[in-house]
Design brief:
The complex is a heterodimer of chains A (183) and B (569). Chain A is of the alpha+beta class and 183 residues long. Helices cover 27% and strands 13% of the residues of chain A. Chain B is of the alpha+beta class and 569 residues long. Chain B has 3 domains: 9-66 and 79-117, Ubiquitin-like (UB roll) (Roll); 129-138 and 151-298, Alpha-Beta Plaits; 302-566, Rossmann fold (3-Layer(aba) Sandwich), CATH 3.40.50.740. In chain B, 21% of the residues lie in helices and 18% in strands. Chain B is built from 13 helices and 24 strands. Chain B has a 7-stranded mixed β-sheet. Classes of the chains: A alpha+beta (183), B alpha+beta (569). The interface between A and B is medium-sized, with 24 and 21 residues. Bound molecules: iron/sulfur cluster (4 copies) and FE2/S2 (inorganic) cluster. The site of one iron/sulfur cluster has 13 residues of chain A, from helix 3. One iron/sulfur cluster binds next to helix 3 of chain B.
Chain lengths: 183, 569
């Protein structure tokens, strides 16, 4: 059989009956927040600070000389888990670009399907030429599926130029010009 | 050298286990038989031994004997002692002998491999991202196994010529060459066109063409195949696609009656390259350059892609019925083809039996080169003979058919692949008969034909051919055909079924083979699944007496057509 227990309620004190202390605490929170720096952003007028290791939209970058870094090795295409990347490799025309002829290979077309990309960053990790980076672009929209496929031009436009530590191909070119001194 | 065809087995001790290996095999082949890989670059089973890369170093020992008396020297336990060589030896030039002991994985051996790898990488460019060999590069693979992962070489690397055009189809990158000399030996020994060689000494050694010559022979692309690194590259395949994306399909080269075994490399329905597949009875590990282009005509615009009856686009079933109706009217002549597969020829033979048609077939010949290009430029003439389509060797044109058309004895023609206007029939003659044309390309015949049945290429269907040595070899589809097309075997089978008033509609290749296996003759008792990947030698019977056009080549000898396959390479 259920037993019931009678809880004794204390009568309200005078202060409580006036509600003033509660109003005061409530207003304290309100005024406190009015004076604090706001946490929310007025997006899109205001933009958040993106940390360096942020994984945004994958982009292609150029070296400080403004040359294309990607050599279309297709490793990123291979590693991409959702198969978002599609590359058509091509040969650099030595006549048209004599200063880059020694690189031999560059993408004819490079597509990243942003409806497929899962922003995993594997492409950046695998790239032997440090040519593909997930940078700070996080907002991407389009009216059609085709628009959501980033083509080579768009990828370079988004990517811009990043500093380079190696200048691998410049060194190769220098060695080629110098030849074998002892020979 | 390899087993040399001998079956005599001897016992050696491989890494502590007693194993049976063929007498005379070298250590690399012997170890391979027992699942152990001895890394190597310069050794190639079909070329002479050069022993210059030193990657295959192993330890070798023989049971010890007293020099004076010849008595076995025993240790304390009474077991014969092993006299291990003081230094490792190269496995490619070490032929096994009874009782020989080999260590393929000891610390010394590993050290030796690591050392060789480090030396090879000293001057090697860091080209893998732009190197076509990446993914199938022996140096890349063995560097992963035996390399140290970083370089102790702080000096400047050697610079050598890059992008040298050696010939119309081969481009050389000298920096990547590891001087294994496989390409040099191939040019001398197999292609018999000695144009490659090394100049300069030491680390400056450079592969080059003899001045004023070029690597232009019809076997030049084999050097690309056997180059263990990315030094020799195919100008055609260069930078087209990474090999790890490509799907491999076993196929047979249709260029000539040699029937070289090939691998077709494709991705998403597009063929990127064709390379030879090893078959010691047919083509060793080689094929012609010209055979590698066989897929290109099928990418052309003038391919037939629609079944038509009287110029109207129809389904394959309707086309087959219309064709059967024309054939059922009688006065039929069939122009068969040695480019059809064995199965298609079998069904065509069935149609011939039902209609009482006369059969003609024309030969396609060219110059042979005595290696892997024979005079008979059709892949399946032997198949037509074995199927009973023809009883003797075909002629060069169709003059007798032409006479029959003129006299009105022939009212309906079933033409497979051939362009009759090239073979002695005029367009005016073609207009006087009803024509059913089956072929891949539009031509003068397809334009006037009542029924047009587009056919698939060898890369798009399954089937088999019988080569110059009466070897039955099958191939698998590598890529899908043009949209809406079915293999012509199915359409022919529908036509035949209709003629026999059989309810049986489409036959699969297995079903065709079960019918072929029930019959008499060379295919009796066979089944599609029973044809092994390396092919099956058929009984030629009396057909072997025919005076075939092929002259002596790598695996064929007209004097002894039966035994020729067994000729040593
Ligand atoms: S971030 Fe991941 S999913 Fe997106 S393109 Fe790169 S590898 Fe593919
Ligand atoms: S972005 Fe990098 S990994 Fe991708 S193809 Fe270009 S070089 Fe290769
Ligand atoms: S030859 Fe092999 S190791 Fe050398 S660059 Fe090419 S893939 Fe890399
Ligand atoms: S080009 Fe290739 S096959 Fe020829 S020697 Fe150099 S590494 Fe060997
Ligand atoms: S494979 Fe033996 S030395 Fe090259």
């Amino acid at each position: 059989m259920a037993t019931s227990k009678v809880i004794e309620r204390k009568p309200l004190t005078f202060a409580e009956k006036t509600f003033l202390p509660q109003i005061a605490t409530g207003l304290k929170t309100t005024f406190g927040n009015m004076l604090k720096k706001p946490i929310t952003l007025q997006y899109p007028e205001e933009r958040p600070v993106i940390p360096d290791n942020y994984r945004g939209v994958p982009t292609l970058v150029k070296d400080p000389n403004g040359r294309e870094k990607c050599v279309s090795c297709q490793l990123c295409e291979f590693v991409c888990p959702p198969k978002a990347i599609r590359i058509t490799p091509g040969e650099i025309d030595p006549e048209a670009e004599p200063d880059r002829a020694h690189v031999e290979k560059a993408p004819q077309e490079f597509e990243i399907n942003m409806l497929r990309c899962i922003y995993c960053g594997f492409c950046e990790e695998v790239c032997p030429e440090e040519a593909i980076y997930l940078q700070d672009v996080f907002s991407l929209s389009g009216y059609s599926r085709e628009e959501m496929i980033n083509k080579k031009d768009k990828l370079y436009e988004l990517g811009g130029t990043l500093p380079d530590q190696h200048f691998k191909w410049d060194k190769k070119k220098a060695a080629e010009l110098e030849g074998n001194p002892e020979h | 050298m390899s087993a040399n065809g001998t079956s005599e087995m001897i016992t050696i001790n491989l890494d502590g286990n007693e194993v049976e290996v063929p007498k005379g095999a070298n250590a690399i082949e012997a170890a391979k038989l027992h699942g152990k890989e001895i890394p190597h670059y310069c050794y190639h089973p079909k070329l002479s031994i050069a022993g210059n890369c030193r990657m295959c170093l192993i330890e070798m020992g023989m049971p010890m004997r007293d020099r004076g008396t010849g008595e076995a020297i025993l240790d304390e336990k009474g077991v014969q002692k092993i006299g291990w060589g003081p230094k490792p030896v190269i496995g490619c030039a070490t032929n096994v002998a009874p009782g020989m002991h080999l260590r393929t994985n000891s610390e010394t051996v590993k050290e030796a491999r690591n050392g060789v790898t480090e030396f090879l990488l000293i001057n090697h460019p860091l080209d893998c991202p732009i190197c076509d060999q990446a993914g199938e590069c022996r140096l890349q693979e063995f560097s992963a196994d035996h390399g140290r992962g970083y370089s102790r070489f702080i000096e400047d690397k050697n610079v050598k010529p890059k992008r040298t055009v050696l010939g119309p189809r081969v481009t050389l990158d000298d920096e990547r060459c590891i001087l294994c000399s496989r390409c040099v030996r191939f040019s001398q020994e197999v292609a018999k066109d000695d144009v490659l060689g090394f100049v300069d000494r030491g680390t400056y050694s450079t592969l080059t063409c003899y001045p004023g010559k070029e690597l232009a022979n019809n076997y030049s692309l084999n050097t690309v195949d056997i180059c263990p690194v990315g030094a020799l590259t195919s100008s055609d395949f260069r930078f087209k696609m990474r090999v790890w994306f490509l799907k491999r399909t076993n196929s047979i080269c249709t260029e000539s009656s040699v029937g070289a075994n090939t691998t077709v490399w494709s991705r998403e329905g597009k063929i990127y390259r064709i390379t030879p597949r090893r078959n010691d009875a047919v083509n060793d590990t080689w094929m012609t350059d010209s055979g590698r282009d066989c897929f290109k005509p099928y990418e052309s615009e003038d391919r037939l892609t629609q079944y038509t009856v009287d110029g109207v686009h129809q389904s394959p079933e309707v086309a087959a019925q219309a064709a059967a109706k024309l054939l059922a009217a009688g006065s039929v002549a069939v122009v068969a083809s040695a480019h059809s597969t064995v199965e298609e020829q079998f069904i065509v033979q069935g149609i011939v039996k039902e209609t009482g048609a006369s059969v003609s077939l024309v030969k396609h010949e060219g110059d042979g080169d005595g290696i892997l290009l024979s005079e008979d430029r059709s892949p399946n003439l032997r198949g037509a003979l074995l199927n009973g389509l023809i009883a003797e060797l075909p002629g060069a044109d169709l003059s007798s058919l032409s006479a029959q058309v003129d006299s009105g004895a022939v009212k309906t023609l079933l033409v497979l692949h051939e362009d009759l206007t090239q073979l002695g029939l005029s367009e005016a003659q073609l207009k006087t008969v009803q024509i059913i044309y089956l072929g891949a390309f539009a031509n003068a015949v397809s334009q006037v034909a009542q029924v047009v049945i587009p056919s698939l290429s060898v890369f798009e269907k399954a089937g088999s051919f019988v080569n110059q040595n009466f070897r039955l070899q099958k191939f698998a589809p590598a890529v899908p055909g043009p949209r809406g097309l079915v293999a012509e075997l199915g359409v022919l089978a529908m036509m035949e079924a209709k003629l026999r008033e059989d309810s049986l509609q489409v036959l699969t290749i297995e079903q065709v083979w079960s019918r072929m296996g029930e019959g008499e003759g060379a295919f009796a008792g066979l089944a599609w699944q029973k044809i092994p990947d390396e092919g099956l030698k058929l009984e030629a019977g009396s057909l072997a007496q025919l005076d075939f056009v092929e002259s002596k080549n790598l695996k064929y000898d007209p004097a002894t057509p039966e035994a020729a396959e067994a000729l040593p390479a």
